[in-house]
Amino acid sequence: MSPEQLTTDYARIERAIRYLDRERAAAPSLADVAEHVGLSEAHFQRLFTRWAGISPKRFLQHRTAEVVKRLLRERRPLLDVTYEAGLSGPGRLHDLLVNAEAVTPGEYQRAGAGLTIRYGFHPTPFGECLIAVTPRGVCHLAFVAPVTRAQALERLRHDWGGAALMADQAATRGAAAQAFPPPGSAAVPGLALHVKGTNFQLKVWRALLEVPPGSVTTYGDLAAAIGDPNAARAVGTAVGSNPVSYLIPCHRVIRASGELGGYAWGPDRKRAMLALESGRSAAPEAVDGSTSAAVRPPARTPGSPRVARPASAGGAPRARSA
Prior knowledge:
By secondary structure, the chain is α/β, with parallel strands linked by helices.
């Protein structure tokens, strides 16, 4: 699929989501949604399959507020889910793919001085993103809309004020492709992250890596998972400071009421991410297109990479909503 086609597809998906939310009381049909985005029902079906790798019916079933609330009701303590899935301990669930490494305290204080960071803008299923890499892994991932490319780049420059930034599409293309594999393709393990944060932020981000696709958690649950149940507000700030959006899945955090809550890249994008993950994690569709209850996350296979324990670091980068 071309980058232009991917961008066009997501723009239509986001428009469809806004329409569904606005007209949810009327329970619009698939044909209604297709008409709203200017496509025939058959064309809309093909667009969804191309974009999501699942049917539009399944996607629509999994983007409702009721489904998000059900996921919340069914949530289990993160460590219980980890051990039930047959894993050896926490930090193994995030698709068994991501290895997170923290900067050292000295590197944190130098804000990247002496480091060259290569960046590029790439299409994703959720719109264009800015992705930046160091020799040790992805250090920054942010979506461009609703901000401009220049504003997105300024955020990167702020977080790594001492580093030399270099535009390099070729150097970042592989990381972008690994972060967002095409629908239906097998994900490639071993994507490395090189993150910068306080000890507290690193604990929160590590807990986020334990929330599997198709699941949600709350700020209170994250606070309990890191052993500080009274720190839900501080956890929210740490979630909002996540420098590697989507890969450290802050979009999987919702309010205890079941409401989606804030997201720096817009509620429509967050809703699309959760619906897509929930739909893909559900049991296969029956012949009539219906779905059964969500299955549990897969057990770790031999040789799967483990998520590294981030090292300690001091200081606090600027927080932003995620």
